[in-house]
Amino acid sequence: MKKFALGFTLLAALGAAVAAQGGPFSGNAEVYLQLTPATPAINSTFEVDLYVDLTGITGSGSTPAALGGFAIPVAFDNSRLTLISVEAGTSGAFTAGDLVFTDLPRANARGFVTVVNTQTASGTPTGIVHVATLTFQTGPQGGRVHFNVNSARTIHEGSLASTYTAANGGPDEIPYDDETALATIATGGVSYSIYYPVFISGDADFMGVTVVNEGVATENLNFRAYNPAGQLITQAGMTNPNVSDNPLAPLQQYVRMSHNLFGSSGALDIEHGWIEVTANEHNLSGFFLIGHIEGADITQMDGAEVGHQVASRVIFPVLGKDAARDTDLYAINPGTTAAAGNLLMKDNLGNTVQTIPVNIPAHGVYEGTFTANTLDRYFDLTLTSGEVFGFQLFGNANALAGLNAQAAADTTANILYDAHFASGNYGIRYFTEINVINASAQVANLTLHLINDAGSEIVTPVARTLNPGAQLRVMGHTLFGLPDPLTAADGVSGSVMIESDQGVVGSITFGDAQNGLFLASLPLLSTSAAKREIYLDHVAIGLIGTVNYWTGIALVNPSRTRTASINLQLYDQNGNLTAQTATPVELAPGQRTSRMLPSFFPGFSGNQFGGFVRLTSDVEVFSFMLFGDVSLNFLAAVPVR
User: Does this chain's domain 191-409 share its CATH topology with 531-641?
Assistant: First the structure.
């Protein structure tokens, strides 16, 4: 149920011609969405009409409930949809010119739009009230898209209010039920691609890939590997292009070493290029892990989610600081024409310290290697033609971290979350580094909030100002005034919320503060990354050879008012359900939990290699996966789309 949280400051001005409407009310209103057409096509527009249904609901004196005002946040899938317009509904009781809604670029960055209006016209809006029409543009990706009208992505909860008169009271809250809508974007038989921005296959360095079919159709996966010049890679023992050795049914996982995708049973001695996977099923997810082997042991590993979208401007947030390892950048061009522009290395003040012209052939890749620098640096790739997907690797002599480049368009988000903060003594001494970049052309004013696992803000919020292009890269304990991880008696864990008045991007890096034995990195997450259905695309628990693997899951409830009830289902590679939560995991507002995967499932044997986890929740939550070995030789963190 939606709780009343936004005050309607204009309601006191409602005219006496409107019937009085005091509470309490006899039931909950329904707020629902109606799509036209019901099954939109890719690369087309469609409308979503927003209705409030007060039918059968009465207030004081058995008077039919009348709508005096509303503030309704509508969440949508901004990876598949772009909101292009918002118009007032057809109810004559609300003046169209009074409708207020979220700025469109900001709505598309956050993955939700809030529509607000108050009744200033004559009439009594009872029954079914049409309050707004949202128009969306679909992109090249079809498949399922989710909407809901009770979104935890917004800081300020929405509400419905009854009408008001001085003589009879009101306005009062009209509670409404949580409503969701699911649409399927028709693909018209057009195939869809996902991108693995590197191709590594060697005796000491390896790459593993996963693909999960979240859709409804059984599909063959088609694999192509391109070299930096955009040509198909040819090599003895390798079939390129290639087709998956078995079809991928719904709720099944395809997991292989990179060389297996191309029919090879052994390493191919490849370290340059990238991999494209195409299928007719558009609801595909996945990720990749890159690692290093010494003897029989994996000593380094990290990865990232697969690429789905390209952009004309991307930010590589990190230039490594450890002289023992260079930073490698990869920018793939999946297009059929060349992509050209400039790669700018920038300092923490936003000044350009190096400019590198970039020209990437069709299907090619730019690969750049940069020496570590103890000063704060990052990279901004801006193209004048074409679009790319990017990835970077950095680290130290003992550990590797991987991170996807981040799109930095006008829709860059101004509220970001660090879903994993750990600093101090946990037996192992952990650090967390926070990295925020002002991708806009205006000064950005930041407020950073440290929230512990219980959901409480534990230090005074920290304010910082970033000039255009400037970077804030700082250890978490320094930023929030916590003890140095090397000397701290205890540890502090939780999440960080970053508010800004401009678009920002960034990352977090965390690991072993004492010996640098393990390291991992994650992007700062936009509110749109909080979802009610999430696929966590791999599981590795148990002993293979000498390596004893573990898998963990972190969950964060960003809502400030609602408890999230979360269910987890564990599947094997073949889509068989192997375990599930006996009762929902309850996370109060702001709470976070990070646990080993078996602890969620009573009776789980504790061993599984391959498969995935499906998460469902009644409130949007953030989640990501952690992989490691019991000896902590490596740590890998993978976000979810």
Answer: yes
pLDDT per residue over 129-154, tens digit each?
A: 999 999 999 998 898 999 999 888 88
Checking DSSP bridges between strand 205-213 and strand 284-294, what pairing results, if any? antiparallel
Distance, in Å, from the CA atom of 69 to the CA atom of 67, rounded to the nearest integer, reads 6
Between residues 313 and 122, the one the model is more confident about: 313
Cα 92 to Cα 65: distance, rounded to the nearest angstrom: 16
Residue for token pair 């259905």: 533
User: In this model, does residue 483 exceed pLDDT 90?
Assistant: yes
Residues 6+ apart with CB under 8 A from 163: 14, 18, 19, 20, 21, 66, 67, 68, 119, 124, 170, 171
Closest residue by Cα to residue 621 from 546, 527, 547: 527
- Whole-angstrom distance, CA of residue 171 vs CA of residue 21: 7
CA-wise closest residue to 362 among 388, 392, 330: 388
> What span, in angstroms and rounded, lies between the C-alpha atoms of 593 and 453?
6
- Token readout for 213 is 């079919």
Report whether 390 contacts 331 (CB < 8 A).
Answer: yes
Query: Which residues lie closer than 8 Å to 7 by C-beta, 6 or more apart?
Result: none
Q: Give the whole-angstrom CA distance, residue 355 versus residue 381.
A: 10
Cα(539)–Cα(519) distance, integer angstroms: 19
* pLDDT for 261 beyond 80: yes
Residue 425: CB atoms within 10 A of its CB come to 18
Spatial CA neighbour of 285 closest among 636, 554, 612:
612
CB-side neighbour CA atoms (13 Å) of 220: 8
CA nearest to 307, candidates 141, 498, 107: 141
When the candidates are 2.60.290.11, 3.40.50.300, 2.60.40.1930, 1.10.1200.120, the CATH number that belongs to 191-409 is 2.60.290.11
